[in-house]
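Ops channel
N.P.: pipeline sanity check, posting one input/output pair.
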């Protein structure tokens, strides 16, 4: 296993890149600790696969260096990097048996037959592939094939890291959950460095200790699921994490208030001071739907708004509120009063986050 260091990595697929917009990866400078379970989370097109391919060596970055345990591997081809990579769609030999498919990465490395047999059976057992070992891969369903692909990624015990690129895309929803747990178990047992790419926040949150959120070719935040939820460093993280995402609205800072739509929202002193200092930047106030309080229009001290929709989600209700032209969402626990029409909105001061040009001000 290895500690992976990305040193000022940038990548463009265009021969002579000019502006930022020509780069699929803008500037990635980051260390992935040995034995960590990481999820790389971001929307389609943000550069996740590009980054994985740079780590595995399938792609040479336009700029920057990659180090494994301090050793520069930037010029090394994939086979010299000792990385296992599992792709979005099954990659295997259709005409071989499941056993031979799993054995392939080991035989390729001249591992002794007895050791090959031991590892193949161990992995097959873990992935519940044992009954299929003698079957040809071609006859199997898509999710069984993807399990073989996962097995091929996991079978070697000498790899520096295993990279998974949205590996559960073709897997049935009920099996998905099971496989994710399995990967987590495998990580806990063998302390492999695992990098798991996904665009699904639930998948990222349940799999990894550290989630790295990617947006437009940049890693905008690295943190535990809790940190991403409570302290999003970037408006994108606020919006992307949580369901529904964080409410964000443009404000101006005046005194100790954030002014939105002509009404003032009281900020704590520290927050107000930082907001005033960020003058000239685009200021936004963020609050999670679970913290936004929707009270009766008669309650004083709140901001006048209007409830336009209530959606029952079983254990809670999602309330849509219009504050002027701006649509906000509140998550209200079951059984709590929700006014109809005119209402008064309350923003608990300790739950307000202020962003300047997209970045959290602290
Ligand atoms: P993700 O895996 O997050 O969906 P990718 O790394 O595949 O994102 O793509 C990042 C950006 O780079 C996208 O804008 C995509 O269109 C572009 N891109 C990816 N692969 C190539 C390629 N081989 N040639 C040119 N552009 C590419
Ligand atoms: Mg991809």
């Amino acid at each position: 296993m290895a500690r992976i260091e990305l040193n000022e990595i940038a990548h463009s697929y265009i021969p002579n890149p000019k502006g930022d917009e020509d780069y699929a990866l803008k500037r990635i400078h980051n260390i992935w600790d040995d034995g960590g379970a990481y999820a790389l989370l971001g929307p389609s097109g943000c550069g996740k696969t590009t980054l994985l391919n740079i780590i595995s060596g399938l792609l040479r970055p336009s700029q920057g260096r990659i180090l494994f345990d301090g050793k520069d591997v930037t010029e090394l081809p994939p086979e010299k990097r000792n990385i296992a990579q599992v792709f979005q769609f099954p990659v295997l030999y259709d005409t071989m048996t499941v056993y031979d498919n799993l054995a392939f990465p080991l035989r390729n490395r001249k591992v002794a037959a007895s050791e090959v047999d031991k590892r193949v059976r161990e992995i097959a057992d873990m992935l519940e592939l044992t009954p299929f070992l003698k079957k040809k891969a071609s006859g199997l369903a898509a999710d069984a094939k993807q399990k073989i692909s996962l097995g091929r990624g996991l079978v070697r015990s000498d790899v520096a890291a295993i990279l998974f690129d949205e590996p559960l895309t073709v897997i049935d929803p009920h099996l998905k959950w099971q496989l994710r747990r399995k990967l987590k178990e495998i990580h806990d047992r063998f302390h492999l460095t695992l990098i798991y790419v996904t665009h699904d926040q639930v998948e990222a949150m349940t799999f990894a200790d550290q989630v790295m959120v990617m947006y437009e070719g940049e890693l905008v935040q690295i943190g535990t699921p809790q940190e991403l939820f409570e302290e999003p460093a970037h408006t994108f993280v606020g919006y992307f994490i949580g369901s529904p995402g964080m409410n964000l609205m443009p404000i101006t800072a005046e005194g100790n208030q954030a002014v939105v739509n002509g009404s003032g929202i009281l900020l704590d002193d520290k927050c107000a001071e930082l907001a005033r200092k960020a003058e000239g930047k685009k200021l936004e106030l963020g609050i999670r739907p679970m913290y936004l309080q929707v009270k009766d229009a008669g309650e004083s001290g709140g901001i006048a708004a209007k409830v336009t929709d209530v959606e029952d989600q079983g254990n809670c209700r999602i309330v849509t509120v219009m504050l002027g032209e701006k649509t906000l969402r509140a998550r209200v626990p079951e059984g709590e009063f929700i006014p109809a029409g005119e209402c008064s909105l309350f923003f608990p001061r300790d739950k307000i986050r202020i962003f300047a040009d997209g970045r959290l001000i602290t």
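N.P.: looks fine end to end. The first helix runs from residue 48 to 56.
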